[in-house]
Amino acid sequence: MQLIMATGNQNKVREIREMLEGTSFTILSMKDAGIEADIDENGTTFEENAVIKAETIRDLTGQMVLADDSGLMIDAMDGAPGVYSSRFMGEDTDYTTKNRAILERLKDVPEEKRGARFVCAMALAFPEKDGVKPETQVFRGVFEGRIAYEIAGENGFGYDPIFYVPEEKMTSAEMSPEAKNRMSHRGKALQQVVAALKELKI
Fold first, then answer.
1. pLDDT tens, 129-169?
2. Are 164 and 184 in contact (CB under 8 A)?
3. Full set of structural domains in the chain with CATH
4. What is the C-alpha to C-alpha distance for residues 161 and 155, in angstroms, rounded to an integer?
5. What is the full DSSP assignment across 57-96?
6. Count of CB atoms within 10 A of residue 45's CB?
7. Active site residue ranges
8. Tens of pLDDT along 48-103?
9. What is the pTM of this model?
10. For residue 83, which of 113, 42, 142 has the smallest C-alpha distance?
11. Which end of the chain is flanked by fewer CB atoms within 10 Å, N or C?
């Protein structure tokens, strides 16, 4: 089965493909599907933005679309950067700069107050049938951890090098892709998507 992933982020597409390996699902990025769209992600929650992306591309293509909106919420920053994670300090700012800025901001924050979590909302939009657009389904996954004291790890992307996972005693950028996908916010949300599709016998 073919699913269009409503994102231009090739790292997200790669992770989703890795997690769906061995299943009947084939993930197409917007680029693979020949889609160019400037989506206005003006929602105030991860769920709202995921739905906006999924339904915009569904309406453009008439196909089933999966969209993800995710980000890092840091307790010591009142939940920021949150839905603005990719736009934090500007969309063109590289993540090494963003990560260093966060570490600097939290340099005097004690360990017990460095709590953080990655949150992922996934929206699954279905094509119109008999003139009716089925309700878009939304799923949420959370990956709990805390902000590290230094950048560590070469795996992953984005904020992974500063996201410390206590159970693993390493950052998510130091974890193997398999271990990260099993524990991550995106992995947890995707497991729910797959279960829903199986239940619908799609």
1. 888 889 999 999 999 999 999 999 999 899 999 999 999 99
2. no
3. 2-199 (3.90.950.10)
4. 8
5. HHHHHSS-EEEEEEEEEEGGGTT-BGGGGGGTT-TTS-HH
6. 15
7. 69
8. 999 999 999 999 999 999 999 999 999 999 999 999 999 999 989 999 999 999 99
9. 0.90
10. 42
11. N
pLDDT of residue 18: 86
Q: Which tokens belong to 116? A: 């953080």
Is pLDDT above 70 for 202? no
